[in-house]
Amino acid sequence: MPAPRKCSPDTDESAGASRHAPFHQDRESRYLHVSFRGALPCFGGLASKQRHTTSRAAVPPPPVRAAVPMIEDTGTLFLRGILAAAGLNPSHYRGTPLLRRLPSCLRALRVDSLHEARRLLSARPELTSKALEALLIGTTELFRDPAVFIHLEQEVMPLLLRRPARPRIWSAGCSEGAELYSVGLLLAKLGALDECVLLGSDCRPGALARARQGVYLPGDRSLPVNGGQWQRLSDGRIAMSHELRKAMRWEQSDLLASGPTGTWDLILCRNLAIYLEPASADALWSRLSDALAPGGFLVVGRAEKPNLPGLHRVAPSIYHKCSSSHRTSP
Ligand SMILES: C[S@@+](CC[C@H](N)C(=O)[O-])C[C@H]1O[C@@H](n2cnc3c(N)ncnc32)[C@H](O)[C@@H]1O
């Protein structure tokens, strides 16, 4: 089985998952929640750039949790301001994981304090994307959770490839693309790369630029050998083949506002929902379930458990939409 391989050293996903319930509430109930709909106090007028979609497909913002005036700590406010300035709706995101990224954000902006960071972003709003890259955790790796890919290769892909139409596969929140390349490597091994539509989407343009390059640090275990679909570069990194890169399409979009249209036979959306407020995560699962073709499969992160009628868990982290399922929203 191919090797799991880290693309980024930053991770707190397992920690995030374990905090999801009681601890999360204990800790955060000290802060009251803020929704950003208008201008943000955090760094000047940046927030006015937010482009929240009002389309039918958007994930609705979570209900406000407190009925009293709402105040959040200044660090979290600042970070939510970065999300808003980048066009994302900050109220979808949990405060605790955001706050943990504050030191990374300050490092990325090369400043020592929140005060300096605010001043810098007010003066140079173009640095928002740099702050966003540091704020949203992009940890990923080739063949992350190997058991999932074994099941995909042995059970799911053969099923999808028997269908008359070309299977459509979407990696939603794909970060630097390692997940979609892992799927692509397996399809190439099955001789079916040409037969599939492969799309990766993420809200961070920097991550997508790296996905297009398809070059990764090496891992501990070997990758599948299939007709030169990757090669080791002189610096030890691994480069995906031209054929593999050509087979993939990358799209910048906010998954919580809108997303690629059409129906999909296999959607991988792993390790994004754990950073969301529970109501936003539920709404996201519901939208993804709607986007699945009947008989399609949804792959989630190890700590994520969508609970939707019509989706049945067929293996750890893998859900199947019954062929007779109807759409859950109009
Ligand atoms: C931890 S990575 C997961 C990467 C990959 N799915 C995996 O599990 O290996 C989460 C990704 O979700 C992306 N993300 C967060 N919020 C998003 C949004 N609203 N729309 C699209 N992508 C988003 C982040 O930019 C990040 O790249």
Automatic annotation (TrEMBL):
It comes from the Bacteria. Transmembrane segments: none annotated. InterPro entries: Bact_Chemotaxis_MeTrfase (IPR050903), CheR_C (IPR022642), CheR_MeTrfase (IPR000780), SAM-dependent_MTases_sf (IPR029063). Residues 1-26 are annotated as: Disordered. Residues 78-304 form the CheR-type methyltransferase domain. This is CheR-type methyltransferase domain-containing protein. It comes from Luteolibacter flavescens.
